[in-house]
Design a protein that fits this description.
The complex is a heterodimer of chains A (285) and B (155). Helix content of chain A is 31%, strand content 12%. Chain A is α/β, with parallel strands linked by helices. In chain B, strand 2 and strand 3 form a beta hairpin.
Chain lengths: 285, 155
C-alpha cells in the first residue's frame, strides 16, 4: 500500500525487514546509529553494523565531519560500496539514524533508507537482537571527489544572510529550548551554551511533531498540515532547519526533503551550540 | 585510592588493565547485572529517594538498607530509558559501595570514575557518568541528616 510520501522508497517498514532479514541482497547494509554509545553492543538487529555518530562521522580535532578519505575508509571496512543501499536505524525515534543518513549524503551516498520506527519499535515487536558483530568482506569505496556541503548544509554566515532575507527557519528543539528557558533538551544536563533563545524569525516546530507514539512517521496528510499549512513552508523554496547540534534537525530535514519532497532543505548543524555562543550573533526570546 | 572501599578498589583495578574493547564488554556485563540491584519485595528501607531530574533520561529511584552498625546497601530502580552507561555505573557502585558507612560514601571523590569508564567514553558522556554516584551521595546525606535530627530529638 502506498504511503503517499513523495520519496516513499526512502522508508523501510520493520515488518518487511523482519520478513526478509535472512534473505537480504548482498548490496543492502543495515546500519545502527544511536545516542546511547553502548547500546549497539547490548544487542542489535542481526547483520547490522554500527556507526558511531561521534567517533566515526565527526573529525576529532576540528568541529566538522570526517574527510572524504575517512568516509571511504569507514564504508570500505563495513563492506559498503557506492551501490550499497544503507538502511539506517537507531534509538530516539531515529534521530541519529537520520543524522548518519544526512552525513552519508554529504559524501553523495544517496542509496539510503530509514527503518520506520527504529530500534524501539523493533524491540517492542519482540523481534530478535544479537550481540554478534557481523563481518563483511572489505570493499574499496572510492574517495568522494568532494563533500556536498553546499547542497544540504548551511553555515553561520549563510544563516545570517538567510534570516536577513527573511527565509523560513525552523527550530526543531523543544519549546523550552526555543523560549530560552532551557539550554538543552529536557532531561539532559543543561550545559554547552551560554545563552538561551532562538535565531530571530525562526518558527518552533519540534521534531517530535513528525512522529507517532511508536516512533514511526506520521502520515503524509498530517505532515503536510504541520509543515506546510501550520508552519507555512513552501516546498519550492529554501528552508533551513536547526536544533542544538544538528541531530534532531537531521530528522526534520529527512521529513521535509524525502517524505514531503521539499526541493531545497538545509541543515544548520552548527545549530544552537554555535549560534548561542557566537559573539555578536543576534538572538530572540 | 586509600579513601575508597576495598570492593570498589578491586573493580577499578580490574577496569584499569582493560583495553577499550574489553572495557566496553565489561561495562555491558555490569549494565546487564543492574536489575539484580532493584528493590525487592519484603525489604524495608531507611530512606527512599525516587525522582527524575535533568541529569538523567528517565526516573531513578535510590533505596537504602541499613544494618545495625549503620552500614548501608543500595537498591536502585532504573526507568526503561536510562542509558547503558548509567546502568553499568549503577551496578558497579551498588557492588563497590555495599557495606560502607554513609559518612564514608559522601566523602568519596568522584575522580575514580574516569578510570572505570575510560577516556573515550568519559569525553562523550562526561556529565552522565557522575549521575548515579551523585544520587547515592545525596541519599546518604539525607540519611545522615535524618539520623542527626532523630538523635537530637532523643537527647
Amino acid at each position: 500500500m502506498s504511503t503517499g510520501y513523495v520519496f516513499e522508497e526512502k522508508i523501510v517498514e520493520i515488518e518487511w525487514l523482519a520478513q526478509n532479514l535472512n534473505s537480504l541482497a548482498p548490496d543492502i547494509r543495515i546500519i545502527e546509529s544511536n545516542e546511547d554509545v553502548l547500546l549497539y553492543d547490548t544487542g542489535h538487529i542481526p547483520g547490522a553494523v554500527h556507526i558511531d555518530w561521534r567517533k566515526d562521522l565527526q573529525d576529532p580535532i576540528i568541529r566538522d565531519y570526517i574527510s572524504a578519505e575517512k568516509f571511504a575508509e569507514l564504508c570500505s571496512r563495513n563492506g559498503i560500496t557506492p551501490h550499497t543501499t544503507c538502511i539506517f536505524y537507531g534509538d530516539k525515534s531515529n534521530w541519529w539514524a537520520c543524522y548518519a543518513l544526512w552525513a552519508f549524503e554529504l559524501f553523495d551516498h544517496k542509496k539510503s533508507k530509514i527503518l520506520n520506527g527504529g530500534r524501539d519499535k523493533w524491540i517492542k515487536l519482540g523481534l530478535p537482537l544479537t550481540k554478534e558483530k557481523p563481518s563483511f568482506e572489505r570493499t574499496h569505496y572510492p574517495v568522494p571527489s568532494k563533500r556536498m556541503d553546499e547542497d544540504i548544509r548551511i553555515f553561520y554566515n549563510g544563516v545570517l544572510d538567510f534570516l536577513k532575507a527573511k527565509g523560513p527557519l525552523i527550530d526543531v528543539r523543544s519549546p523550552g529550548e526555543y523560549s530560552g528557558e532551557l539550554l538543552h533538551m529536557p532531561e539532559y544536563p543543561q550545559e554547552g551554551v551560554l545563552r538561551g533563545g532562538h535565531i530571530p524569525g525562526a518558527k518552533s516546530v519540534p521534531w517530535k511533531t513528525a512522529v507517532k507514539e511508536d516512533g514511526t512517521f506520521k502520515s503524509i496528510a498530517e505532515l503536510r498540515d504541520i509543515y506546510e499549512k501550520q508552519a507555512g513552508l513552501d516546498p519550492e523554496k529554501e528552508t533551513v532547519v536547526y536544533c542544538r547540534i544538528g541531530e534532531r534537525s537531521s530528522h526534520t530535514w529527512f521529513v521535509l526533503k524525502y517524505l514531503l519532497g521539499h526541493k531545497n532543505v538545509k541543515n544548520y548543524d552548527g545549530s544552537w551550540t554555535e549560534w548561542g555562543n557566537k559573539v555578536g550573533a543576534p538572538i530572540e526570546r | 585510592m586509600e579513601e575508597l572501599p576495598k570492593a570498589l578498589k578491586d573493580i577499578i583495578s580490574t577496569f584499569e588493565v582493560l583495553g577499550e574493547e574489553e572495557r566496553r564488554e565489561m561495562l555491558i556485563a555490569y549494565s546487564e547485572a543492574a536489575p539484580q540491584f532493584s528493590p525487592k519485595e519484603g525489604e524495608s528501607y531507611v530512606l527512599t529517594d525516587v525522582r527524575k531530574d535533568e541529569e538523567c533520561t528517565d526516573t531513578v529511584g535510590v533505596y537504602l538498607i541499613s544494618d545495625e552498625e549503620g552500614k548501608v546497601n543500595f537498591r536502585i530502580h532504573l526507568g526503561p530509558h536510562v542509558q547503558t552507561l548509567t546502568k553499568a555505573m549503577t551496578s558497579i557502585l551498588c557492588q563497590g559501595l555495599s557495606g560502607s558507612l554513609p559518612e564514608q560514601i559522601v566523602n568519596i571523590p568522584s575522580t575514580f570514575i574516569s578510570k572505570i569508564v575510560g577516556g573515550e567514553l568519559f569525553r562523550v558522556r562526561s556529565q552522565t557518568v557522575y549521575y548515579v554516584l551523585g544520587r547515592m551521595k545525596s541519599a546518604c546525606k539525607q540519611l545522615i541528616n535524618k539520623k542527626t535530627i532523630e538523635n537530637g530529638q532523643v537527647h
